[in-house]
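Translate structure to sequence.
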């Protein structure tokens, strides 16, 4: 049916639809003219392809896709939030106040501690308290009995636990036998004080202390033989040639210091084992150079010593001549003072005589 009439269009009188388009299309023309709404396509977030991840850092769970972490990206990664620590383990303490309204800074000291642990967090805790004996309230009888009962129950609980563990480990403790009564007649009658003709003996097992250590030590059984060794596959046997025998002939080790077995080893074998015959003694040219250098140094030192000796003798001769000249001058002066005459020039020979006389005069004076 068509809602259009000749004079009035009923569709123009109706209010406009709230949606962008109608769900039911009455007219094909209206569908073509009306706006088309496309359903939103869900696009799944995917990480970049291999080789194109430079500068990209995965932050969210969607960045990893369906896989794990990326080893080429050197940052902390948590695919599917695996390994990520939540904030429940935070060590931050809530702000606390004391009865006076001051901040309790020592609350951090009690973190992770037992409530029975005594912690001195302020200077006031270190001051000794002066309490009179009468101010201390002693517990009454009921409190003492209650505390005693609690202590007894706690000790029994600990002891029962240990006994149970011992009974499980050592079942012979639980095997208790009934006592046996044995009647017998003594061989010697009348020697006892009671004078009874019969006696009865009660025989029972001695009680065992469950806390005693075991008297027997259980030894482990020796270990069985191990599995057989793995077979070693060898090549097929070959005929050994004379050359192979010579190559595989290894000379024994002969020591020049130890002979525990006391073998008598010939000298040629010792020298062959020592390897002295294979080495050649080569004297280096440096030995001759050192010897020549020593000879040259010896000659130079001798020449220096002789030159020093000659110089020393020359100096001694000059000193002696100076002393002799001084003595002659002293003799002349003494002779002139004694005679009071003018000095007379004498020859070399006469000078020797006058010197002799002066020496005599000086000696006499």
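Result:
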């Amino acid at each position: 049916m068509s809602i259009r009439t000749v004079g009035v269009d009923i569709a123009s009188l109706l209010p406009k639809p709230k949606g962008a388009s109608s769900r039911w299309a009455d007219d094909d023309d209206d569908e073509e003219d009306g706006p088309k709404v496309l359903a939103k396509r869900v696009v799944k977030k995917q990480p970049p392809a291999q080789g194109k991840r430079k500068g990209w850092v995965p932050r969210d769970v969607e960045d990893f896709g369906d896989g794990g972490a990326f080893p080429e990206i050197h940052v902390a990664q948590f695919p599917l939030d695996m390994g990520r620590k939540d904030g429940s383990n935070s060590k931050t303490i809530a702000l606390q106040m004391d009865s006076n309204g001051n901040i309790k800074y020592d609350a951090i000291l009690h973190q992770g501690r037992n409530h029975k642990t005594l912690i001195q967090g302020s200077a006031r805790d270190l001051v000794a308290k002066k309490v009179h004996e009468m101010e201390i309230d002693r517990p009454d009888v009921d409190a003492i009995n209650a505390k005693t009962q609690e202590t007894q129950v706690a000790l029994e609980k600990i002891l029962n636990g240990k006994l149970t563990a011992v009974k499980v480990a050592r079942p012979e403790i639980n095997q208790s036998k009934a006592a046996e009564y044995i009647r017998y007649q003594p061989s010697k009658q009348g020697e006892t004080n009671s004078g009874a003709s019969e006696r009865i003996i009660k025989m029972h097992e001695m009680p065992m202390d469950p806390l005693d250590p075991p008297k027997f030590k259980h030894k482990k059984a020796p270990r069985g033989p191990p599995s057989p060794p793995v077979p070693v596959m060898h090549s097929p046997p070959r005929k050994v040639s004379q050359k192979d025998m010579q190559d595989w002939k290894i000379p024994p080790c002969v020591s020049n210091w130890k002979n525990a077995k006391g073998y008598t080893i010939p000298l040629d074998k010792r020298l062959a084992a020592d390897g002295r015959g294979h080495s050649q003694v080569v004297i280096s040219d440096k030995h001759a150079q050192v010897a020549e250098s020593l000879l040259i140094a010896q000659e130079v030192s001798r020449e220096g010593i002789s030159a020093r000796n000659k110089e020393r003798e020359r100096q001694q001769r000059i000193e002696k001549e100076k002393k002799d000249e001084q003595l002659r001058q002293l003799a002349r002066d003494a002779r002139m003072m004694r005679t009071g005459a003018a000095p007379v020039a004498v020859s070399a020979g006469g000078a020797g005589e006058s010197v002799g006389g002066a020496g005599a005069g000086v000696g006499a004076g």
